[in-house]
User: What shape does this take?
Amino acid sequence: MSHDPAKTARIDFEPAGVEVQTIPGESILDSARRAKVRIASACGGRGICKSCIIHFTGGDIPPPSANDRDFFSSSKLGRGWRRACQCSAIGDSRIHVPARARAESARMQVDGSEFWVQPEPLVEICTIELTRPSLAYPKADFDRLVDRLSMEKGSREWTIDPETLRSLPATLRRNHWLVQVVIFENEIIAIQPTQTRLVGLAVDLGTTNIGIFLVDLHSGNTIASTGIENPQGIYGSDVISRIGTAAQHPEKATEMHRLVVDAINQAATSMCEAHQLATDQIVDIVVAGNTAMHHLFTRLPVRGLGLAPFTPVITRAMDFKAREICLKSAPGARIHMIPNIAGFVGGDHTAMLIGISAHTESRTIVALDIGTNTEISLLHQGTITSLSCPSGPALEGGHISCGMRASTGAIEAISIAGDSLRIKTIGDTDPIGLCGSAVVDATAAFFLAGGLNHRGKIARDYRHTVLQ
Amino acid sequence: MSHDPAKTARIDFEPAGVEVQTIPGESILDSARRAKVRIASACGGRGICKSCIIHFTGGDIPPPSANDRDFFSSSKLGRGWRRACQCSAIGDSRIHVPARARAESARMQVDGSEFWVQPEPLVEICTIELTRPSLAYPKADFDRLVDRLSMEKGSREWTIDPETLRSLPATLRRNHWLVQVVIFENEIIAIQPTQTRLVGLAVDLGTTNIGIFLVDLHSGNTIASTGIENPQGIYGSDVISRIGTAAQHPEKATEMHRLVVDAINQAATSMCEAHQLATDQIVDIVVAGNTAMHHLFTRLPVRGLGLAPFTPVITRAMDFKAREICLKSAPGARIHMIPNIAGFVGGDHTAMLIGISAHTESRTIVALDIGTNTEISLLHQGTITSLSCPSGPALEGGHISCGMRASTGAIEAISIAGDSLRIKTIGDTDPIGLCGSAVVDATAAFFLAGGLNHRGKIARDYRHTVLQ
Assistant: This one.
């Protein structure tokens, strides 16, 4: 049978049981993305990690790429093992995605030690009753509202969000001229029935996970919180992969932006529904993320973050209308982006420093935020010194030959007791690979067993039964 | 031949030579609109004016509606005369659109007595040179710009339009770190190469015609001006028709908005091209129109303008980003809407009062703005009293049985000399109907000939050869 790589083919992905028609030239990884078959890809398809390993089990098997020939043993190549980012279909085929390459949902905890804060929302609320318009008093709806508002709140240069203004006449009449006005600075951002509960949305935009919190603006209490995976993961698990892809392909940057906004919208909508809230009761939004997540979320170019001297577009606080990026909320609601510190120390770290009141702290403290990227700040004598280093790829198996994320089947704990190696897997199932905590555990166990030299490498002359 | 009104049919419009497939239930007027065959419609299709008269000259002729039976003589009905808004196709047919119903371009003059004003643009310009980023100075692009700008212009709470921020890194690098910054209040609204000429757009948004002026913001001179028809005319020539249609059909309000924005974009683009300007050199825009045009342009609901007590949504000045309504300009350019006075005295009248410095005028003056709607202000002892009345439909033939707009074939002047009636038509062609100036002339001529009574009606016992 002869193959024409310019033609499309059919791939059956196992065990998902999903079939997809390929596009000529597209990598298997991209075909899988289109078919929503999740294949792990720590480096985002650049061919430098080992996470997207697949097994051709039938049909036409593409010849191995030079890169894959260096990567796999000839025996494995012969049996149909490839990396999904390094080959394209040459005809109909069946592909088995092994357990450790299935980018399944990682175990996730969204915890926060709830501590009481005096809520100081940026929005103000004012209940207003207006007289009905008449021939004797035919003043425009907005102008009458402003007259009344100035009586209640004092004179300001009142403005109104245009979208809110469009709904003003109908809202006033439907509510019999008695409404609740939501104000940000001197702008009216929403008009609602009185007693409408006002909520805020706080988003911790991580490279791997996104934490979303719905907060009551009256009490300051968290109404609901949820953790979701950052769906940009299909473009690489580390920020460098995503920066590279976004800088080279503007349309993929747009797609990364859309993926995150859609995911937050979906999570916020279901949290609202569960608490009998409408998304237009969200009147204020705050987002913290590392600089790359910040730029992708606000649709700023990320090219500068990928090249020395790693210049961000902006580090200052940013403030813009949520509807400009289609985030569901009250029509005039704003998103406040926590300011970044530098290219690789982002707003998430700023948020942590604010959270521990670093600006008023007099003790010497080291504050760590361990994530896909780890940022560390040293607070000492009124100075804060920050640095960052990538940690996720190492901890999550991106560059470890048997590494994987912390999902079912991952070895999460290792110890050596006498002659035996003890392991514990997530879900207590058969082991598939090592997740981050096992890498740390293994290092510790081998060190304690005397098997590591001073450089952290396995000592050349070391012999132990568990290491045979 | 039997007809199924639920089926589509083909209409040939003569003399345009345009063919269109109908949609079941659609009026001939709506079919013509879709096919871009222009049929005059002073009342916007409500069946109360006489402007959309058509003649079925072949094919299946629909039976006359009750409304048309009251309107036409049975002889005319028998010969296939109908009003386009009062009937639908019942089968393939050929329709002749008579000359006076062809909504051809009216004669238009866009004149302005150019008087010298000291330009006081709302935008500021600042030329800035930045140092290149380096590992020793890796500050974010925007933050470095702000530092430099604060040195030049003093410290402010500088913000930047998000769309402008997105283009900032590329613009800085393309221009070797030397740029021109355009500022509105404390917001950076555009970043351009140095020496870029900055222009403003002034729009006089009339019900019938739109005047568009491109102004050099450095000198205050008008670079170019043009007059175009308001394309909303297909929804009626007077504001009442358009308000009614827009209030009842939100999708038609959206369409009216889009028609005006597209028309202004097209005119602005060709004026810019003719003067080697790009539309993103437009950094400030001011729009004046009557309250209905103002609301339709800004996508505000107009329902209140059509019902007593004729309440506008807003009369105060409004200010919003041009891109929110897709008007071509610099990314962060704003549109300033001249404030309205009341439901039927709009920003166009305010502009006229500003133009004559009404606020500092000490003489007693009557100021008139004659258009489709006429507004009159009396300036007396520091008080300005304004009123408005519709005038266009009368002047443009909307409710006159032989009336038409001032296009080729319209009688524009009438006088009585002895026993003979003298007429002058536009284009010196055969007369088709009367335009506004002829209505005024006829009234004057008959009055001078002693034929009008004190109520302006033709005297019952008056006999004159030219009136036989």
User: Anything to note?
Assistant: Chain B touches chain A through 41 residues (CB under 8 Å). Chain B has a mean pLDDT of 87.
